[in-house]
Amino acid sequence: MVPLVLEKNLWSSIPGEDTIMNIPGFWLVRRENLEYFPRSSSYWDRCMVGGYLSPKSVLEVFDKLVAGSINWPAIGSVLDYIIRPVVPSETLTLEVQYETDRRLYVDFLPLLVMEDGTSLIAKPHRLAAERHENLWRQSFRVAETARLRALDQEDGGCRYACLKAAKAACKLNPALHLLNSSQLTNAILLLSEKEGDWTREALADRFLQLLRALVGHLEAGRLPCALHPKVNLFCELTEQEVDELGYTLYCALSDPEQLLRTAAGP
Question: Exposed, middle or buried: residue 135 (CB in 10 Å: 0-12, 13-18, 19+)?
């Protein structure tokens, strides 16, 4: 994440649930004091759309500054890697090939940290319609990861190991690629509120329980954010995607070891 600096007296943030769109977890960033500080007083006024800071416009400026002015292939040759921007991409994404059959993808995301500590990233709403184009996504990644690690440190638990296995399984199974790290982390945090045994010996049982919990959340069409329950982490999935994910996970319940073997690799 790449921090951006906004003038405090020129911009303010509005929670998505306080707008007509009513989308918790997303925010609008509004331009203020135009009567005293007219347009062009702020560097970011060039990215203003309809009185709000547009994450899409910020990404376009960011892409021109970073992707357009840096010779990534030359940097890659110095490091003995192949580095190239991914096109097309909703964000600035670099593909790093460090072995013949191994690649790493790195996302560069503009980040706003508001006065109250809220972190907003310029990652568009997945089902972005016209009315969603100015929405900034609230990021809980740092707090979620810290909470998960803190719980493991308290009891020597396997939550992070369970997360790694689940992420690998979702990455290697095309039918589960829509489940992201934040959703899996929150599912584990919510499960931790009900389940106390996270010893290493219980990893397989907790993995199976995680699959069941995800099926339940998909059936309900809602996965609450463990840190901010108003936020539904499934709000960007279509009904068809929810059905397909639920079916795949339900089938996996009959042979969860296969997912674990897949995640562990050959």
Answer: buried
| Segment-wise mean pLDDT, segments of 10 residues, the chain, 266 residues | 88 92 93 94 94 91 76 84 76 80 82 91 78 88 95 95 92 90 97 94 93 96 96 94 94 77 53
The answer for 259, left when phi > 0, alpha when psi is -120 to 50, beta otherwise, is alpha
Number of H helices, E strands in the chain: 8, 11
Q: How far is CA 257 from CA 218, 254, 261, 265, in A?
A: 21, 9, 6, 12
Tell me which residue range forms the domain holding 194.
Answer: 140-260
- For residue 27, give the 3-state DSSP assignment: strand
* Final residue belonging to a domain, choices 138, 154, 169: 138
Strand partners, 130: none
Is 266 inside any structural domain? Answer: no
Please tell me the total count of domains within the chain: 2
Instruction: State the pLDDT at residue 128.
Output: 63
pLDDT for residue 147: 97
Tokens of 2: 């790449």
Contact 200, 160 (CB under 8 A): no
Which string of b and e fits 240-263 if b means at least 16 CB within 10 Å? eebebbbebbeebeeebeebbebb
Indicate whether 115 and 153 sit together in one domain: no
Question: Residue 82: its pLDDT value, please?
Answer: 86
Buried b vs exposed e over 7-39: b needs ≥16 C-beta within 10 Å?
Answer: eeebbebebbeeeeeebbbbbbbbbeeeeeeee
